Structure formats: structure tokens, C-alpha cells
Amino acid sequence: STSNPGKYGTTVEVLRNVINEICQGLVDLLNCNLDKLSPEILTHYFVYDWDKSAALGSYRSCLRKYGKTPKNTSVINQCLPLAMESCRKSKIRATKVIRVTGYMLENLSKIDSDIKIIHYVRDPRALFLSQRGGKVLPNAVNSSALWANSWCSRLVADYRHVRHLAETVDILQIRYEDLATNFSHAIHKIYKYIKRSIPEELINWFQTNTNATKSNGPMGTTRTNSTATAYRWRHHLPDTVINTISKYCANVLRIYRYAEK
To answer: The Sulfotransferase domain covers which part of the protein (predicted)?
Structure first.
């Protein structure tokens, strides 16, 4: 209940505090204040086990050498300068935050007005397929209706927050499908937005990884045909599910200029 204060205050107050902590953590991350992040973040699976970020390579190696646990702060403190040095040397600091809300973006811009925000959106039908591991049964109409009603209500609310924020903050919106089908145009928009020149190796990376000989799994970034991946839902979702999601997400499809089918 939002009206019955508990040990930590009302539900609304608790949620507000959590959102503020998340936003402050993002600001600290993007400003290389890594020593202000919690040990749980600094030793998270995405940091410790994934090799996605080359910039964190020396930090990961250090943690693996000495062994890490969130409680072993001495090891973290010993290795952290490597990550902070790499961060400060980076010309661009960027992070992808999934399921961020429009309200969180408003808070983020208040904490640090210099942060560039790219609002990255995707067709809800593709999201539904992706969240279910690429496999959806024909009898998934009820579950798809519940999902679409909840998810797309949030997407509409986020859109309103972002549109309101865009009145005072410069925000770039990019659709997943546009990046997948015409990465060159999307990259030019992004780098124009952040006022940087496009590295040649970035174009080469996209050319290689959007038209590769082999994909590297559902969580990977290499695709044999990125356009086919973007529109895979058309061939892997039952028509009944497509129609159900399109019905409940009609406003989202209209807002972000997606075709009904």
C-alpha cells in the first residue's frame, strides 16, 4: 500500500529511492566514479564472466587472478584502479540499460544534464518472441494478451515521459529495426547526435557482424542476416498471437510507426 508507511517508508517512497539509486549509479558509471558502485555491481556476472567489454579486460583478469566475491572488498579495491584508468582513457563512455523507464530518464537528466540519451525501441511482437527464447506455441494467445496489455501500457507511459523530457533535453530515438536493416544510416544519426566522427573500425564491425557466416546465439551480437532477425517474429509467431499483440499494442505500433502485420 502507498498509504501505510512501513520500516522504510511508503511504497512510493521506497520506489523513488530505488530509482534515484539506480540513476545515481548510472551517472557514477558514466563518469568513471567506479569506486562509488556497490561490490555486487563490480563483481556481477556481466562484469566478471562476460568478455563483451574489452575495456574491462585488465580488471576482469585481475579479479580472476585473485578470486572475487562481493564481500572480498580488498581484491576489488586492488583491481578497481585498472577499470577506472581504462574508463578515463575512453573517448566515449556508453552503457546499454534494458527496461529503463521514461521516469528514470527524467531523473537521470536531472542528476547529470551532460549525459546523452539514446532511446532504443523495438517492435513489441519481436520483444515477445525474444523474451520467450524464440519459441512460441500456438496456444499462447492468453499469455500474449496478458503480456501485451501490461508491456505496451508501460511503453505508452514511457513514450509520454520521453516526449515530455524531449521538450527540454535533446534525446535521440533509434528503432532496433532501423539499425538492423540500415546500420550505416543509424550509425551516422547516432554519431551526429553525440558530435563525434565515426571510427572506420565500427563500420567494419557492423558489416562483419550483421552478415556473418554464423550467428553466436540468442545473447550474442553476431548475425548471419540482421534484417531477418529483426523481422523473425513474422514467421515464428502464430497468426493468433500476432493479432492479439497487435490489438493490445495498437498505440505502440502507431507511436513508433510499426506496421500492423
So the answer is: 98-253
Taking only the tens place, the pLDDT of each residue in 86-111 is 999 998 999 888 878 888 888 888 89
pTM of the shown model: 0.83
Annotated domain spans of the chain: 32-89, 102-255
- Is the distance from CB of 136 to CB of 236 less than 8 angstroms? yes
- Cα–Cα distance for residue pair 241/237, rounded to 1 Å: 6
SS3 of 38, please? coil
Q: What angle do CA 186, 187, 193 make, to 5 degrees?
A: 95
Q: Residue for cell digits 562476460?
A: 50
Residue position matching grid coordinates 509467431: 237
Whether residue 43 contacts residue 68, with contact meaning beta carbons closer than 8 Å, is answered with yes
Q: What's the topology of domain 102-255? A: Rossmann fold (3.40.50)
User: Could you tell me the three cell numbers for 143?
Assistant: 499469455
Q: What DSSP designation does 9 have? A: B
Q: Which grid cell sits at 117?
A: 540519451
Residue type, 23: C
Distance CA 84, CA 53 (A): 14
Amino acid letter for position 150? S
CB atoms within 10 A of CB 139: 10
Whether 213 contacts 224, CB under 8 Å: yes
